[in-house]
Amino acid sequence: FISVPIRSATSSSEHAEFVALLNSYLADESLTPLERAQFTIQRRWLSSADSSNVAELLCVFSCMPGLAGLPLADGRVTLWNPVAHLHPTSRGSVHINSPDPFAQPSIDPKFLSRAYDMKAFLQALRLREKIIRAPPLDSMITQSAIPPSSVQTDEEVEAFIKANITTFAHPVGTAAMAARNLGGVVDQNLKVYGTRNIRVVDASIIPLQISATPASTVFAIAEKVFVIHVAVENLANANERLRILF
């Protein structure tokens, strides 16, 4: 995995365009409170020289024989190198659309609905091209399958992105931990607002994607809810003992 800040993958003028786009989104009065809070954090990440460790782009390199359907009878190995945009600005929705708890929800990801995200993907693909066209990889790669070598211009790359974009196995944020007045779903103790003791213990509480795969963070969330549960149980037992005593 190569996690890269947009600042490191762009020129100063290109980086300024990303900041300007975020500023224009923050000026939109139709933003939800949670979107405004999220974009404010993202702008700080983009603008601060101290945030160079915050990665917005991800390149994945893995050698997998036969991936993408390439015939490898001659012994060649396929290099799988997708790119991901870790902090997109587009916002979709997930809604219950039936009283049947087993019915599929209505999901609209609204990929690329903001220009910022297409620019990020373009930069990520440019970065990938720089890597695979540099030694020693350049001497090992004989052909490009996805995207095909015929895809060259920005317009062609954008069309390819629109036709092939998908999620990347690590969704977060559908039950975000945030203040209730911002539109958060759970509080700092992972309890769903408006309930007595319903807690969410998975990646959906993470309000912004982190700059890495989230597995370790999800383990930490599970450990936190265990500590909370023990504390609640201990408090309940202590209250019961006090009730009996007095």
From TrEMBL:
Family listed: Belongs to the GMC oxidoreductase family.
Stretches assigned to the Glucose-methanol-choline oxidoreductase C-terminal domain: 88-222
Pfam families in alphabetical order: GMC_oxred_C
Keyword check for Coiled coil: no
Protein name listed in UniProt: GMC oxidoreductase
Keyword Ligase appears in the UniProt entry: no
Alphabetical list of InterPro entries matching this protein: FAD/NAD-bd_sf (IPR036188), GMC_OxRdtase (IPR012132), GMC_OxRtase_C (IPR007867)
Cofactor or coenzyme needed: FAD
Gene Ontology terms, MF aspect: flavin adenine dinucleotide binding; oxidoreductase activity, acting on CH-OH group of donors
Alphabetic keyword roster: FAD, Flavoprotein, Glycoprotein, Oxidoreductase, Signal
